[in-house]
Amino acid sequence: MTPEALNTFFSICIGFALAGALVNGYQALAQRPAGFGLLQDGVAPKTFAAVPFLVFAAPFIIMRNTLRGMRVESRRAEFVMMATLIAGFWSMMSGTFFLMTLRAAGLLV
């Protein structure tokens, strides 16, 4: 496995782990699951605060909603595959950003 492929795989794993930690932390504090409905409160400070949260939590929310929809609504496999690809790419991007931030802070070599 090339170093670039290993770095990409690590970024995907970090992105999904970060998303899961954020969503589970939100659910523990708010006593309700996080979702994209956080953006539907109109123009309010908590709506603007939800945007960076959802940027990093989106891969987990997409996969949770996709897997739930697959069981409840009997969604087609093509839809599930497309949602998985989107969540994986989003996770790779957020994981890459998180790793770059750690490197810039000097916490990661």
List keywords for this structure.
109 residues; 3 helices; mainly alpha
Can you walk me through this structure?
- By secondary structure, this protein is an all-alpha fold.
- The protein has one domain.
- 77% of the residues lie in helices and 0% in strands.
- The chain contains 3 helices and no strands.
- It has helices at residues 3-30, 45-72, 77-104.
- The two termini are 20 Å apart.
Secondary structure layout plus pairing:
Blueprint: H1 3-30, H2 45-72, H3 77-104
Helix pairs in contact: 1-2, 1-3, 2-3
Tally of DSSP helical segments: 3
Strand content: under 5%
Share of helix among residues? Answer: over 70%
Rg of Cα set = 15 Å
Main pleated sheet: none
Average pLDDT metric: 91
Distance between the termini: 20 Å
Number of extended strands: 0
Find the structural class using helix and strand composition: mainly alpha
Number of domains: 1
- Poorly predicted ranges: none
**What order do the SSEs take from the amino end to the carboxyl end, as H and E?**
HHH
- Give the overall silhouette: flat
